[in-house]
Amino acid sequence: MLDIGDIGIHVFSEKETETAKPPPGSFRRSDIAEAYTAFLTDSVHNQNARIIESKLDEILVGKVMDSDITESEISFHDILGLVAKFATDIKGRDWLRLGNNLIGFTVGAKRSYGTLSKFDAERFGTLTELFEEAFEAINVSKVNVGKTRRELSRDFIEKVDQFAARDVDEVTEAFHEATLVD
Q: Residues 92, 121: contact at Cβ < 8 Å?
């Protein structure tokens, strides 16, 4: 079982929302679980609803084995530490609370952990605004928005050192190139 008690973020389950409203700024347990699966498999494409149930375990285990998770010096606990740090800024928190962004973040942060660790919450919040402004330029009628958001958030976080030095037009262009369909 994943222990997130000492990370500093509030997590709630769907069942808890039956009796009370979740605390402001809290994260859904299901989003954390999906982010953990994405982290383990090194893939943003693990949506259970899209995978045939009888093959789910086999496919996910294969992805975990292929991801070289045991060779990584970065743990999911480390990634959640960044989430907690960045969630102290409302812009970063709101961006990370979106499940597809959180999934992309966990996979991308495996490769940019050192760079991300140097950012404070306010800087990260500013970067999420840059991401959102560029993302708004995508023609949502031509893409699967959830899949595209997961992929672009992964790429943005993975290459955050490069994207942080760009203006919104350059990020928009990079997003456009990444979403071109043959």
A: yes
